[in-house]
C-alpha cells in the first residue's frame, strides 16, 4: 500500500524538475486576490445600503451571481492546471507556463471536459443538498436569535424556536456531511481518468468516467481524504495570505492528486495480479 508522504514527495520532485511549474497558478491567484478585494468592497456597500435604504433586487441578484460565475471560472482554470500537469507527468510535454491556466479552453475535446465537469458538479450538488439544508436551518436559527436580541424582542418562545432550529439544523448538517464525503471521494479520480481517456482516445462519455472513478476508489476513499487533509495547513496559509500562497500550493496539490491516481492504479493492479496468481 502506498503512503501519502511518498505521493507528496514525488509531487515536489516533479515540480522542482518542471520549468514554469510555479507560474502556472499565477493568473488564477491574481484574479482571486482581485475578486476578494472587490467582494470586500461590495459587502461594505451592501451593508450601507441595507442600513440606509431598501436594496434593489437586481443588486442582490448580481452580488449573488457574480461569486457563482467566478467559482465556475476558478474550477475550469483549476482543471486546466491539472490537465497541463497531467501532460507533464505522462510525458506529453516537459514544461508549463502561466498561460496553461487556460489550456483547457483550447483543447480539442473541450466539450467533453466541460460535460464531465458539469455532471460531476451536479451530482455533488445533489449529494450535498441535505448538508446545505441543515446548515441553512442552523444559520437561520442563529440569525433569528441575533436579530431578536438586537431588537430587544428576545422572548422565551422566540429563543426556544431559534435554539431548536440551531440544534436540528446542526444535526441535519452533520448527517449531510457524513453522506456527502464518501460520494465526494468516490468522484475523486474523475479528472485524471478523463485526461487519460482523452489522451488514449477511449473516452465514451461523462457517465462512464464517473462510474469508473467510483469503481477505482472503492477501498481508497480514506486515502483520498487523508491526502486532502494533509494539505489543510497549506489551505489555511493560503487563506491567511489572501490566496498568494496558492502560487505554490495549487500546483503542489494538483500534482499530488495525479500521482495519487497513478498510485491507486498501480496498487489495484498489484492486488489483482496477486489474487489471480493465488486463486485459480
From TrEMBL:
Organism of this sequence: Streptococcus cuniculi
Protein name, as recorded: DUF975 family protein
Superkingdom, taxonomy of origin: Bacteria
InterPro entries xrefs: DUF975
Transmembrane stretches, start-end: 21-41, 68-89, 125-151, 158-181, 225-250
Keyword vocabulary terms for this entry: Membrane, Transmembrane, Transmembrane helix
UniProt keyword Ligase, yes or no: no
Amino acid at each position: 500500500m502506498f503512503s501519502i508522504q511518498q505521493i507528496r514527495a514525488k509531487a515536489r520532485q516533479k515540480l522542482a524538475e518542471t520549468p514554469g511549474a510555479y507560474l502556472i497558478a499565477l493568473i488564477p491567484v491574481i484574479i482571486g486576490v482581485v475578486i476578494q478585494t472587490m467582494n470586500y468592497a461590495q459587502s461594505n456597500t451592501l451593508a450601507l445600503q441595507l442600513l440606509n435604504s431598501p436594496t434593489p433586487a437586481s443588486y442582490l441578484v448580481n452580488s449573488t451571481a457574480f461569486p457563482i460565475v467566478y467559482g465556475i471560472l476558478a474550477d475550469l482554470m483549476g482543471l486546466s492546471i491539472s490537465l497541463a500537469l497531467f501532460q507533464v507527468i505522462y510525458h506529453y510535454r516537459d514544461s508549463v507556463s502561466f498561460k496553461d491556466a487556460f489550456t483547457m479552453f483550447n483543447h480539442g475535446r473541450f466539450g467533453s471536459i466541460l460535460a464531465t465537469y458539469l455532471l460531476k458538479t451536479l451530482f455533488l450538488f445533489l449529494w450535498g443538498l441535505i448538508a446545505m439544508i441543515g446548515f441553512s436551518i442552523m444559520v437561520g436559527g442563529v440569525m433569528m436569535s441575533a436579530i431578536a436580541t438586537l431588537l430587544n424582542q428576545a422572548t422565551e418562545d422566540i429563543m426556544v424556536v431559534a435554539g431548536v432550529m440551531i440544534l436540528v439544523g446542526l444535526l441535519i448538517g452533520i448527517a449531510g456531511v457524513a453522506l456527502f464525503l464518501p460520494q465526494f471521494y468516490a468522484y475523486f479520480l474523475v479528472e485524471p481518468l478523463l485526461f487519460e481517456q482523452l489522451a488514449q482516445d477511449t473516452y465514451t462519455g461523462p457517465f462512464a468516467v464517473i462510474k469508473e472513478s467510483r469503481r477505482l476508489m472503492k477501498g481508497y476513499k480514506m486515502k483520498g481524504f487523508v491526502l486532502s487533509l494533509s494539505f489543510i495547513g497549506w489551505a489555511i496559509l493560503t487563506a491567511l495570505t489572501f490566496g498568494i500562497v496558492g502560487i505554490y500550493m495549487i500546483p503542489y496539490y494538483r500534482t499530488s492528486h495525479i500521482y495519487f491516481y497513478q498510485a491507486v492504479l498501480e496498487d489495484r493492479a498489484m492486488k489483482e495480479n496477486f489474487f489471480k496468481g493465488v486463486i485459480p
